[in-house]
């Protein structure tokens, strides 16, 4: 890592971490309120904090990826940072942020399970909300890959619109296909297209294939982002 790319990463990560703390705080307030209402109405909790956090976290990381392009690129380049250093710094940031978000999700889930175990509140958990501890590590692995890919897709789409609005819409279509494939191999079939079930009528893929698919998508997106940022026109 050179000094400028590290500086870019520190500045971007610091900004995103502040946003993350605000988002996590708001999410916790909403989650607690919803669970209190759920217990009073139905006498049980239908979801765990890990499940409840997934969709908001993906949206947050996607938006963060979108905001990683225009303003940050212009600001850094106008202050003497090369496009290459911006790209490297932003790439470091997305992996750091993905790791921190995954760690936060896992920690909150662990604290929730510990609290319920110590207080006897497990009785309020519905069968759908109880996950076997042996699947937690695998779930967190999937969460990390999903977080990184959602951030990358936001960055990717933003870069497309930065170059030309038609390219941006094209990248949206590509991103939908990419996230659908990734969800499908990880067993998230609720959000996948019928076409994929027809093309590959497999109920469950191996963990190795799921990880390989996510890694390939990440490598492709990171490589494409290098080309997109390298040729980006910046008005200083």
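Q: What amino acid sequence fits the structure above?
A:
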């Amino acid at each position: 890592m050179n000094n400028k790319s590290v500086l870019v990463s520190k500045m971007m990560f610091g900004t995103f971490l502040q946003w993350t703390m605000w988002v996590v705080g708001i999410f916790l307030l909403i989650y607690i309120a919803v669970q209190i209402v759920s217990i009073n109405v139905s006498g049980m909790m239908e979801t765990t904090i890990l499940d409840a956090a997934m969709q908001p976290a993906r949206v947050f990381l996607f938006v963060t990826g979108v905001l990683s392009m225009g303003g940050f690129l212009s600001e850094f380049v106008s202050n003497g940072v090369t496009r290459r250093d911006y790209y490297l710094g932003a790439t470091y940031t997305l992996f750091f942020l993905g790791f921190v978000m995954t760690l936060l999700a896992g920690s909150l889930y662990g604290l929730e399970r510990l609290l319920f175990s110590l207080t006897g509140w497990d009785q309020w958990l519905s069968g759908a909300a109880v996950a076997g501890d042996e699947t937690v590590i695998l779930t967190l692995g999937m969460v990390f890959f999903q977080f990184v890919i959602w951030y990358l897709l936001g960055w990717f789409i933003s870069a497309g619109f930065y170059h030309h609005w038609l390219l941006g819409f094209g990248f949206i279509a590509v991103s939908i296909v990419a996230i659908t494939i990734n969800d499908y191999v990880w067993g998230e079939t609720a959000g996948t297209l019928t076409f994929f079930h027809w093309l590959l009528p497999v109920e469950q893929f191996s963990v190795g294939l799921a990880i390989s698919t996510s890694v390939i998508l990440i490598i492709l997106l990171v490589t494409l982002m290098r080309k997109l940022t390298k040729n980006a026109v910046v008005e200083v």
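Q: And what stands out in the fold?
A: DSSP finds eight helices and no strands in the chain.
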